[in-house]
Amino acid sequence: MMSLWMVSVTAIAADPCDARRYVEGDTYATGEIVRNGDSAYQCDVGGWCSMQAAWAYEPGAGMYWEMAWHLVGPCSDSNEPPLVSLTAPAEGEVFRIGENVVFEVDAVDPDGTVSGVTYYVDGQGIGETTTPPFAMSWQNPSLGAHQVVAVARDDRGAETESAAVSFSVIEPDVLSVRITEPTAGARFTIDSPVAVTAVVHAPHAPVDRVHFLVDGAVFATDETAPFRQSWTAMGIGEHLLSARVEAGDGTSAESDPVAIRVSSTDPPADPGRVVVGYWETWDAVIHDAGHIPLNDIHEGYNVLNVAFPVILPDGTAVLEDGMAPGEDPPEPEEIATAQAAGRKVLLSIGGAAAGMNLTSAAVVDRFIETIIPILADNGYDGIDIDIESGLVAGPSWNQLSASQEGLLRIILEVTDHFGPDFMLTMAPETAYVTGGTIAYGGPWGAYLPIIDRVRDRLDWIQMQYYNGDMFGRDGDYYPPGTVEGMVRQTEAMVEGFQVAGGPVFQGLAQDQVVIGLPAITGAGRGYMTPAKVRQGFDTLHAQYPGLRGLMTWSANWDASNGYEYVRNHRPYLDGLGPILSTR
């Protein structure tokens, strides 16, 4: 017994900070020392130390870590930053317009792992990859000279920037044409003029003519430079503009198409303070409201989220109701009428009938491919993300799970397609956001790194303050349906909070926060009377005058109760005056 004790003491005295690092779910023996963060810990209860439950037992971070471990002592921060160098493109490499430029790196971490690489072209971030070997393709690069750098990040947050590599993109050595005006995602009202400009590169023969096309049909022809024509916008929805050049030697070439959107009226201005109502496509007998045409919903709702399209197993999005087949979603003309009245109309993705395998690249590709035409052809103002299943957190804040990568890709590719005027909102359950104060894993906190990566293009988050546990910045539990819970949840969203076992989640701008509540007791656990809602909002408004407004599930439920929700809260919000943005 004495010799065993001496061996144990010697192991501790050598240097506890040289011990292996803690990994959730690994097996640890009682008495074993590990390093986690900047401290060393000794395991007191092997079974608890080894549990797949970092939220509870991660040394120094879990809620109950002191039941399983004790602190041995601090360690100096000896984290070595990652090493990164660009291996592609080669210095001075030349690409032709239309080619994709592939970026590749050699990235290693001497004392850990590389968790991600972000690429910057001419100082602008073009994307991040968290999957080895950390390659990325820059699609449709612009003409001219460029510089790219790569920034590698390790599993402890240290970053290293590579040396810059110069390359250039030039015109091809063949006949080519491209549309330079308008840009992809541009929006026009019906009957307005659309100026279309084409740039031709003709290295071997003079240009005879340039045809301008919309949706594949020629609408004008030009025989002299500069090649510029005007098309009168017609037909609500998305249209594809292109150009075809014909040269004197008999050769011809066609440009890539540029997608634009045509609506019946100018897009409504920023809605200011909002009352958001989810509009159910189905005839829900449960609340006796029946099917309500979109434009029959109470005018106090200045944002309507159409819920929900169906998502087939292969990722195909179908604009029909999955709860009650036969009920029709709104027609483009109905959406245009709502927009003309000053409303925003978004398509909400998620709900009970719209689960999706976010880990499958093929499913995500198919969803993006099919949802973009639905959004364009019907003239939606934006997309609302209401995914409630299939999303799980990655192994660490800096390393996204496959499902997080899939959802992030959907958001980025859809919003990139439609441009900066396209709206993005989210409606996660509390576990996915403020649940991150007590745990990070599974659904807990799974939205947080996604929110962090898209906060610059996010209009607002309307978290569901109902049907689930509510946690404040301190990690304490607050029951739904209470004034204190409403206040504490909102504080967490604006002020930010410490993520369990991770970094601090930086709070959102005040006008990026909308409070989501059920319209009536039958709509969800957490109903609050109008008086309670006002009490909570009064408290919050004194501290955060820029809060965006309120959301409810659903406008249909509200209709079954005489529109109690919107009739009380629309005048109240209007009386608070204009929003002073804190962005």
UniProtKB/TrEMBL annotation:
Keyword Lipid biosynthesis among UniProt keywords: no
Signal peptide: none
Molecular function via GO: chitin binding; endochitinase activity
Keywords of the record: Glycosidase, Hydrolase
One GO BP: carbohydrate metabolic process
Domain GH18: 273-576
Hydrolase is among the record's keywords: yes
Pfam families cross-referenced by the UniProt entry: Big_7 (PF17957), Glyco_hydro_18 (PF00704)
InterPro entries given in the database record: Chitinase_II/V-like_cat, GH, Glyco_hydro18_cat, Glyco_hydro_18_chit_AS, Glycosyl_Hydrlase18_Chitinase, Ig-like_fold
EC number: 3.2.1.14
Family: Belongs to the glycosyl hydrolase 18 family. Chitinase class II subfamily.
The protein, known as: chitinase
